[in-house]
Every structure is written in C-alpha cells, then in structure tokens.
Amino acid sequence: MRQLLVMLCLIVACGAPEAPSSRVVVVATDATYRPFEYLGDERGIVGYDIDLFRAIGKRAGFEVKFVNQPFVGALAGLETGTYEAIISAMTITAERAETFLFSDPYYDAGQIVAIRDETVDIASFEDLPGRKIGVQRGTTGAMKAKEAPGAELTEYDSIDLAFMALGNGTVDAVINDEPTSRSIAAARGGFRLVGDTLTEEQYGIAMRKDAQELAAEINAALTDLRADGTLDSLHAKWIAAPAE
Predict the structure, then answer these.
(1) What is the b/e burial string over 168-199, where b = at least 16 CB atoms within 10 angstroms of the residue's CB?
(2) How many C-beta atoms lie closer than 10 Å to residue 214's C-beta?
(3) Over the chain (244 residues), what is each successive 10-residue block's mean pLDDT?
(4) Of 33, 53, 73, nearest to 242 (Cα)?
(5) If you ran DSSP here, which 8-state letter would residue 92 be given?
(6) pLDDT value at residue 15
(7) Phi and psi for 82 in degrees, rounded to 5?
(8) Smallest Cα–Cα separation from 35: which of 24, 21, 45?
C-alpha cells in the first residue's frame, strides 16, 4: 500500500507519462492525375490513391502526410529518403523494381490514345507513326510512345501539361493511363479516347528497398481492404463515377 501511495504521489507531482507520439509516414504523390490524386479546391489533395493510403494508415496504425511532388521528383526523393513511399498511379515494372520495393498490386490499368474531338485521321495507336505525341515524363506512357516509328515525342512534367498541349494543337495525341485520360476528357471536354488499351499494367505503392517492414504493413492492410470491400467502394466512388 505504501508503495502504491508513493507511486500516486509521483504521478500527481510529475504528471502521468506521456503517450508515445503518433507515427507519421511521409508519402509523395503527383497531384495532377485525376481521379487518383489531384487538387480538390479547399479539400487539398483528393482521389482514389489518397483515400486508399489513408485507409491503409488507419489499418496499420500510422498517420499519413502527403507531399505534392512532380512524378520524377517523387522518384528522386524516395531514393534519397525524403519520402517513405510513393502512391501515384505508379505502374510496377521490372526496371523500377530494380530500384524500388513495391507493395502488392492494388489496381489494374493500361495505356490508351487520346485525341482532340475534331481529329478524324487517328483511330488507334497504329495511326501514330510520324505524328506528334505528348506524354508525361518518366511514365509507361512515354515508354509506349517510343514504339511508334518516326513519331515526335514531347515529354511534359505533368499530364495536365500534356493535355494542354493536345488542346492547343502542339501535339496530335497523348498516350496515358486510361482511367486518368477518361477522367480528364470527361472533366474538361474537347478530347476523346480511341482504340483499345495498349498495355496491361498494375499499380503499386513504391518504397525504398530496405523498407520491408513498411511493405509488410501495407500489404497486410491491402489484403484486409480488398477482403472487406473497401477497394470496390473506392472504385465505385472514384473510377466508375468520378467525384468532382
């Protein structure tokens, strides 16, 4: 009893021990890529990927701090340790996996050709040889565009800039991920998608090679979120009926 009283006195005098501070994971995203990540006015960065990583953090027990960063800069920042992860509609490729550790896939996607509404002589990728093509720098869309013989390729720092160039006639077509191109076309008007999807790709969350513990937490959370229907709900919210 005497020891208990002493302990109570110490707590009163010194205060109860503080709870450990919340863990924060810093995540880079290129917020120009609707419906996966984009600036939603006063709401800040919104989108499928944003909701997904917040749900992952809730399951894994950490808070998430998002940093808006152009895609190429995000890759460099991850390598140097500025960020702990990237979620940015990032396709898992063998080349990228040599540098980064990826989570399990969370979304299936593919590249597609976008043109202006009034364009009549481009109906598919096969019509792009010798044409001017806009892409986002460092993406799988840029890789695919290089397969068009004689095409003049222009790489932009964001997909918004590529579509701006398409709109003003600087380029004849844009090659980009189908969900994002479809979302941009619906939101802005003046563009349409042609042909079939050109690739079969899967998005993953990128981390440094030494982040096995974080990867295990993320993968466990993804498994739960897939099983409980959260991924289906996110698809319905952001992809099937994209939020404004």
Answers:
(1) eeebbbbbbbbbbbbbbbeeeeebebeeeebb
(2) 19
(3) 42 42 90 91 88 97 95 94 96 95 97 97 97 95 96 94 97 96 92 96 97 98 97 94 54
(4) 33
(5) P
(6) 45
(7) -65, -35
(8) 45
Measured between alpha carbons, how far is 33 from 38 in angstroms, rounded to an integer?
6
Give the span between the Cα atoms of 74 and 177, in whole angstroms: 18
Tokens of 205: 């969350």
User: Length of the chain, please?
Assistant: 244
- Dump the DSSP string for 3-42: HHHHHHHHHHHH-PPPPPPPPEEEEEE-TEETTTEEE-GG
Classified as helix, coil or strand, 167 is helix
Q: How far apart are CA 101 and CA 207, in angstroms?
A: 5
Which pLDDT does position 242 carry in this prediction?
55
Structural domains in the chain, sorted by start: 24-108+202-238 (3.40.190.10), 111-194 (3.40.190.10)
